[in-house]
Amino acid sequence: MAILTPEPTRSPESRSIGETLAGKRLPRWAPLATAVAAIVVGYGIGAAGSIFGLAWFVVAALLFLIAQTAWSFAVEGRRHAVDRLATTLIYACFIVALAPLLSVLLSVIAKGAGVVFTDFPSFFTETMRNVSPRKPGGGVAHAIVGTIEQVAISSLIAVPVGIMAAVYLVEYGRGRLAKWVSFFVDVMTGVPSIVAGLFIYTFWILVLGFERSGFAAALSLVILMIPVIVRTTEEMLKIVPNDLREASYALGIPKWKTIARIVLPTALSGIITGVMLAVARVAGETAPLLLTTFLSQSMNWDPFSGPQAALPTFVWDQISNGTDASVARAWGGAFVLILFVMIFYIGARLLARVFAPKAR
Amino acid sequence: MAKRIDVSDLDIYYSKFLAVEGVTFSVEPRTVTAFIGPSGCGKSTVLRTLNRMHEVIPGAYVNGKVLLDGENIYDADVDPVNVRRTIGMVFQRPNPFPTMSIYENVIAGLKLERTKGVKRDKASMDAVVEKSLRGANLWEEVKDRLNRPGSGLSGGQQQRLCIARAIAVEPQVLLMDEPCSALDPISTLAIEDLIEDLKERYTIVIVTHNMQQAARVSSTTAFFNLAGIGQPGRMVEMGPTAKIFSTPTEKATEDYVSGRFG
After folding, report:
1. Domains of chain B, CATH where assigned
2. Looking at the structure, do residues A156 and A292 belong to the same domain, yes or no?
3. A48 and A188 share one domain
4. B82 chain-A contacts, CB cut-off 8 A
5. Is the minimum CB–CB distance between A7 and chain B shorter than 8 Å?
6. Cβ–Cβ contacts within 10 Å for residue A151, how many?
């Protein structure tokens, strides 16, 4: 083993080879200690007044990055130092990506939950009919009804169309028509929501002469839902193994039945997730609703006639009133909207779990 | 119920690419015929043309005749779905339907495509499931967990489940595309025993890379090879298994079965 005997001039990393597989490592508490030290120093710099606001936190993060990498390099060698650097950067990106989401969620809960629960349950049962913008009171009942009806109608139209379009693209589409369908789905994905609203406004209301209604709003939401459903369903159908289709054909099962009874059930859990994302997207749309159904302060159960409220337009309306009571109601409306999407999302995840292929 | 197959002058194409050229052979009822040959020589392709699975691939088509008891399965008015009901297939990788239980997997073919004269009530379905699983030597292992997902079984059990599924629709012919290549020796033996039983009732054509397996299970063997690099595959020789493995007519066959093949 003479060849492998370490020479004193080698780096710490290569020294470990030959004698033992274990190298020198930083103690387990090293990252935590570095972080605490970096925060203390960073906060000190901030308190000294040379930088402003939350910038001290950025300084602390940079200090942590430099100190830990340098310490690791000195003790553990280059590879571990790079590993720790990359780990830290990836966690930092994760936090940066999560921060706005958490910030939105927390501020909506902080500012919205109060209104919702001090007026519980009247905030869910009353409308804004005859409620002065300056005074507290009223509720979102009309907006909840509107959002549920509009989203339900648009789902009833968009889900079958979207899934069938995806089935066409994956199972049948060859040649030019499939290319065009795929191209237009891409184009639709990029359509701004207000353009979808404008399209329904000019086509449904101005050209065909129908009145503003929750149904017109639902039509504009359909335009936004279809591409999301087509794309996600397409991806899900593509990952269904071809083996299963061939196994089904080999049993003498026709193609359409193979798709309906083998392929779609296998992909169902993913398709439900895709539908969910589409619903979550359109539930928060404001611009197309303003053009197609506008606002209402009172309950309108009939989605086919007259303006109908919805949660996003409720928020928009209350914010634009500008009074303290209205702004509080707007936060309450935003809170209810997030609650609505969340309940729907959890429900869909549970449903997807029920339908997911099971291993045993 | 087993039927004979006569193939004459079959050319098989993938779009413009001629994959297999000029294949002519016959398969007698209630026999096991093995296709052997190097990878890429078209054994599986030929097998898949026997129940029109070949044309599932976009652009794939054939020229020539495949007669099933004298009826050409490539005639214009023949429905490929009916062909596949008559000629079942087992694939290289076990592929039970993941959303279905063992029970549902076995009756999938009967449940999803109703045929005249097949009873679909619970009792007759139960009978079909037991008969098919017994036929596939799987009944004893799964009879207490018929409602569990088929994908929870081991690889060998899954393959036997796929065989049970294939024989549940009572085909006349059973095609097997390397059914044991993903299995361990014990499961392989179980499947080979099963083939031995099944040949009493079915005409079986099996593709295999395992020459011992071909020698063990088949009565007739066909050797496939490429005519040359970049040229279509062809059937070099077909004959009784004992003859192919001892005194083949063609030099190429002898080189292949004796392991001298390049």
Report:
1. 5-257 (3.40.50.300)
2. yes
3. no
4. 252
5. no
6. 26
Alpha-carbon distance A183 to nearest alpha carbon in chain B (angstroms): 21
The CA distance from A202 to B203, in Å, is 67
Provide the pLDDT confidence category of residue A360 given band limits of 50, 70 and 90: very low
Q: What is the mean pLDDT of residues A217-241?
A: 95
A238 and A302 part of one domain: yes
The answer to whether residue A174 sits within a structural domain is yes
Q: Count of domains in chain A?
A: 2
> Looking at the partner chain, which of A245, A253, A360 has a beta carbon nearest the beta carbon of B113?
A253
Domain of A251, in residue numbers: 141-354
**What ipTM was assigned to the predicted interfaces of this complex?**
0.89
For residue B103, is pLDDT > 70?
Answer: yes
- Write the DSSP string, B28-53: -TT-EEEEE--TTSSHHHHHHHTTT-
Say yes or no to pLDDT of A347 above 50. Answer: yes
- Mean pLDDT for B33-57 is 91
A1 in a structural domain: no
Q: Report residue B172 as tokens.
A: 């006349």
| Partner-chain contact A251 B82, CB within 8 Å | no
B97, B158, B161, B167: which to substitute to probe chain A, counting the most A Cβ within 10 Å? B97
Whether B112 sits inside 8 A of A257 (CB atoms) is yes
- Chain B residues with CB inside 8 Å of A245's CB? 56
Q: Would you state the structure tokens that stand for residue A233, as one six-digit string?
A: 């369903």
What is the nearest CA distance from B120 to chain A, expressed in angstroms?
16
Min Cα–Cα distance to chain A from B251, Å: 36
Q: What was the pLDDT predicted at A121? A: 85
Whether residue A181 is contained in a domain is answered as yes
Segment A142-162 shows an average pLDDT of 95
Query: What pLDDT does residue B262 have?
Result: 47
The dihedrals phi and psi of B17, each to the nearest 5 degrees, come to -80, 120
* The pLDDT value given to residue A179: 93
Judge: A251–B84 Cβ closer than 8 Å, yes or no: yes
CATH number for the domain that contains residue A281: 1.10.3720.10
Q: Are A245 and A263 in contact (CB under 8 A)?
A: yes
Query: pLDDT digit string (tens) for A245-285?
Result: 999 999 989 999 999 999 999 999 889 988 988 998 899 99
CB A295 within 8 A of CB A306: no
Same domain, A202 and A94: no
A271 CA to chain B: closest CA distance, Å?
15
Contacts of A348 (CB under 8 A, 6+ apart): A272, A273, A275, A276
pLDDT of A322 strictly over 70: yes
